[in-house]
Amino acid sequence: MAQRRGKKLFLRQVEDELPSHLPPKLRAFESELWGSYYKVWYDAPKIHFEVQWLRNGWLEIGLHFEADAETNERLAKELEGKRSAIKKALGDEVKFTAHGSGWRGIVERWSGGDMRGEEAATEAASRLAEYVTALAPMLEKATTRTASPTS
């Protein structure tokens, strides 16, 4: 029986494979791999795409809004207005969530099977790329449209 891979090795594989799943214009991102998560962002680190191992052993993939509550709500509401386009692009498994201190998300959760295997990591990298490809342009427009005017 093969030894079970650790979370870090799984996430490192996602990190290595993600760029090959993205269109060239979306490959210039910043990222962080730490503990149980791998985060990718373009402008603000607190608004990021993520693959994260949850405490219950499930894997979460999606877009997290973890800035201040007002910013999170504003951006999440803007994207929620595009719910049908998002569901069409990403499927019905996508959920719009709220948690913690005003954090919001557009995510899905996986469980079962060989969750830490190489094939699952490739699928997670591909799925993360689908989130980035579908949501990054919407997020950029929402950020521009909802930016507070300067005084």
**Can you tell me the CATH topology?**
Yope Regulator, Chain: A
The biggest beta sheet is recorded as: 6 strands, antiparallel
The CATH class designation is Alpha Beta
Annotated CATH architecture: 2-Layer Sandwich
- Distance from N terminus to C terminus (CA atoms, Å) equals 64 Å
Shape: globular
The number of domains? 1
Order of adjacent strands in the largest pleated sheet: 1-2-3-4-6-5
Q: What Rg is obtained from the alpha carbons, in whole angstroms?
A: 15 Å
Unreliable parts? none
Give a topology summary.
Blueprint: H1 7-21, E1 30-34, E2 37-41, E3 47-53, E4 59-65, H2 69-80, H3 83-90, E5 95-99, E6 103-110, H4 118-146
Antiparallel strand pairs: 1-2, 2-3, 3-4, 4-6, 5-6
Brief digest:
By secondary structure, this protein is α+β, with helices and mostly antiparallel strands.
Structure characterization notes:
With 151 residues, the protein is of the alpha+beta class. It has a single domain (7-143), classed as Yope Regulator, Chain: A. Helix content is 42%, strand content 25%. The protein has 4 helices and 6 strands, in the order αββββααββα. The chain has helices spanning 7-21, 69-80, 83-90, 118-146; strands at residues 30-34, 37-41, 47-53, 59-65, 95-99, 103-110. The chain has a 6-stranded antiparallel beta sheet with strand order 1-2-3-4-6-5. The longest helix has 29 residues, at 118-146. The radius of gyration is 15 Å and the shape is globular.
